[in-house]
């Protein structure tokens, strides 16, 4: 039983899509092409497949090589995230293949938008080259200053160390049985409050959440804002060691104990330094672009032909 609330959106869907391809993301026994790819010898070896469309090792490697260095490093260090990104790339290539199969790229409005997008990439890269930021920018002192001035944007949320005794609803359990569980949870809570028994001992014996029960009910440190609202409300105002409940959820009944609280604190400088560095580089690049365009317009005016403008309809 998890007490942390979850959000499912498009990103979650793509994660599930990538996880649905486990056999396609690993070399099959006896797959010589995959074995060559593992050794870096065949960039054309299929990395993933979907509906007859293949994503090759070389194609995905090119995507990684054209990503931010920190993004690539993060991918290589996180196998599950790598699997997700492969799934996203595979899905994108599948859609591209289907679009070309149906000649969507040859439709007038689509062809026009594709050409405009191509032009946009060329213009953006030309400006990036013309307004290039020095490789050593920003200096360490500038990054540190940005950190000191924006600490409130990099706060770690309040976290709590909580423990629970969880009594699970069984399938088709009737209201009376559920009420009996509630009364049992009340009894456990009273035993702790009257010091008739230790919370950890009761959790180990009676909690039906195996992972935490083996730890005396300990759920570890959790950001307060990630707890279910019922738990946030129950532990509000508790002192360390105090218990609250019973709490009803769709899964069962819980008794919780607060074991510790950490107030919001700024994230360590080294942790946010890469993001700050990128932010400052991006800001400087935009400033350089604006200056480049202003200087250009100051030297070379745009001349408008009014007679030709009148022909526009």
Keywords:
313 residues, alpha+beta, 4-stranded antiparallel beta sheet, two-stranded antiparallel ribbon, 13 helices, 8 strands, 52% helix
Structural features, described:
Helices cover 52% and strands 15% of the residues. With 313 residues, the chain is α+β, with helices and mostly antiparallel strands. A hairpin with a 2-residue loop joins strand 1 (46-50) and strand 2 (53-56). Helix 1 packs across helix 5, helix 4 packs across helix 5 (79-101) and helix 7 (140-149) crosses helix 12 (269-299). The longest helix has 31 residues, at 269-299. The chain is elongated.
Gist?
By secondary structure, the protein is of the alpha+beta class. It has helices spanning 10-19, 32-38, 57-65, 69-77, 79-101, 108-130, 140-149, 175-193, 199-206, 210-213, 229-235, 269-299, 306-309, and strands at 46-50, 53-56, 155-156, 159-168, 218-223, 243-249, 252-262, 265-266.
Q: Which term fits the overall shape?
A: elongated
Per DSSP, the total helix count is 13
- Our estimate of the beta-strand percent is 15-25%
The separation of the N and C termini measures 65 Å
Contiguous uncertain segments of 5+ residues:
1-40
Biggest sheet architecture: 4 strands, antiparallel
Percent of residues in helices comes to 40-55%
Spatial extent as radius of gyration = 29 Å
Mean pLDDT, nearest integer? 82
Structural class given helices, strands, pairing? Answer: alpha+beta
The largest beta-sheet arranges its strands as 5-4-7-6
H-E string:
HHEEHHHHHEEHHHEHEEEHH
List how many beta strands DSSP finds. 8
């Amino acid at each position: 039983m998890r007490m942390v609330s979850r959000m499912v959106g498009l990103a979650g869907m793509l994660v599930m899509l990538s996880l649905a391809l486990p056999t396609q993301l690993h070399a099959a026994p006896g797959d010589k092409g995959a074995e060559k790819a593992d050794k870096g010898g065949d960039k054309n070896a299929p990395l993933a497949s979907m509906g007859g469309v293949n994503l090759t090792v070389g194609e995905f490697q090119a995507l990684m090589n054209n990503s931010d260095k920190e993004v690539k490093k993060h991918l290589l260090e996180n196998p599950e995230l790598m699997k997700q990104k492969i799934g996203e790339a595979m899905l994108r290539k599948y859609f591209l293949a289907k679009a070309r199969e149906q000649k969507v790229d040859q439709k007038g409005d689509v062809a026009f938008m594709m050409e405009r997008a191509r032009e946009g990439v060329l213009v953006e890269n030309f400006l990036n080259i013309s307004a290039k930021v020095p490789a050593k920018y920003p200096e360490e002192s500038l990054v540190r200053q940005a950190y000191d001035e924006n600490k409130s944007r990099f706060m770690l949320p309040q976290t709590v160390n909580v423990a629970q005794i969880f009594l699970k609803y069984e399938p088709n359990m009737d209201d009376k049985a559920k009420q009996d569980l509630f009364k049992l949870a009340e009894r456990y809570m009273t035993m702790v409050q009257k010091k008739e028994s230790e919370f950890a001992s009761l959790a180990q014996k009676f909690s039906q959440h195996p992972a935490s029960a083996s730890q005396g009910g300990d759920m570890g440190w959790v950001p307060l804002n990630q707890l279910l609202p019922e738990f946030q409300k129950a532990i509000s105002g508790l002192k360390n060691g105090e218990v609250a409940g019973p709490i009803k959820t769709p899964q069962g009944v819980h008794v919780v104990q607060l074991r510790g609280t950490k107030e919001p604190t700024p994230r360590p400088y080294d942790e946010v330094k890469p993001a700050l560095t990128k932010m400052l580089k991006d800001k400087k690049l935009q400033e350089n672009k604006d200056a480049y365009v202003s200087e250009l317009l100051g030297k070379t005016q745009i001349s408008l032909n009014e007679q030709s403008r009148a022909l526009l309809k």
